[in-house]
User: What shape does this take?
Amino acid sequence: MTQVYITRLSKFLPNEPVPNDGIEGVLGKVSDKSSKAKALVLRNNGIKTRHYAFRNGKSTHTNAQLAANAVNGLFDEKIPVEKLQLLSASTASPDQLLPSHAAMVHGLIGKHSMEIVSVTGACCTGLQALKYAFLAIKADSAKMAAACGSEKNSTWLHASRFQAEADNLARLNEDPIIAFEKDFLRFMISDGAGAALLQDQPNDNEISLRIEWIEIKSFANEFATCMYAGAIKNEDGSLTGWNDLNTSDWADKSVFSLKQDTGLLRGNIISCGGEYLRELKEKYDLSPDKIDYFLPHMSSEYFKKEMELYLEKVGMKIPPDKWFYNLTKVGNIGSASPYVMLEALFNSGKLNKGDHILVMVPESSRFIYGYMYLAVV
Assistant: This one.
């Protein structure tokens, strides 16, 4: 079958990077009080700077604009955008319910008609979008495709989105403090976009990344929902979606905010990925000596030590000098993170022909893991 190559990578990170002490200056303070969760979360996640498409209480970019900027960065006079046959776009934070995210991005970049597909979910959607493009070229359905991941989380995280809930708690004579499951994510996730150009031929005079395989597995049959938005979680672990709630609840319960069951996350996110990698190790005869660079998408450096121990447990101990990630500089950008991480390595000058790269992408919404194995050619 046709070989598939990543020939270009691009990113778009909006505005100047925001340091830790500037987060609430952009996202605001609920009830004008600094978050009690902030110091603990930032100490554990290791993030030093991140980007927001939000300033002075207003958006500077839509999600679609972030994605379009990243996709446009793939093209130039040598390869004009008019040659693009397929756009595969992913996000966890679309600007609207309809039209689809990919349609909005196409509307911004498109000078011509093309096939589009939207993938929605959380972090793993970026890899799912890339796999769709990979398979399309593999099946000779297209010769050139762009895959992208983008997030615009800052609007969801702004203090104004939680103020109604805080006010409602105060009216009920309760402590108007936003629950940790909502508050901690305000210091975990950020905005940005990344994109990859996939072709059926490698670059002539520059390196390319040949996609050897992409594997994705859902564990939703085993676990309850862990991260969610647009719903409330019931005591039995089920969700009640926004459309079955009273409109007054939407604000009073911060229904559209991102929420995460941190206990469920800590107990399962590492073991799911480790055991799945054990399967892939056997399937592809994979070993640490066949990996020159390991690119783990991590929501937080908090998980790094436990991840190292589990890799060793499944016979995949990867030396520290092979790890490559940029979480501390760009933050957790969800579906965009694997693209932005790979773009940094691809354009670093470190890669040599013959190198192999393993990309790992977990998703905690209801636990999905994706792995991608690349060869530098």
About this structure: DSSP finds 13 helices and 17 strands in the chain. Residues 14 and 53 are 5 Å apart (CA to CA). The first helix runs from residue 23 to 27. The radius of gyration is 20 Å.
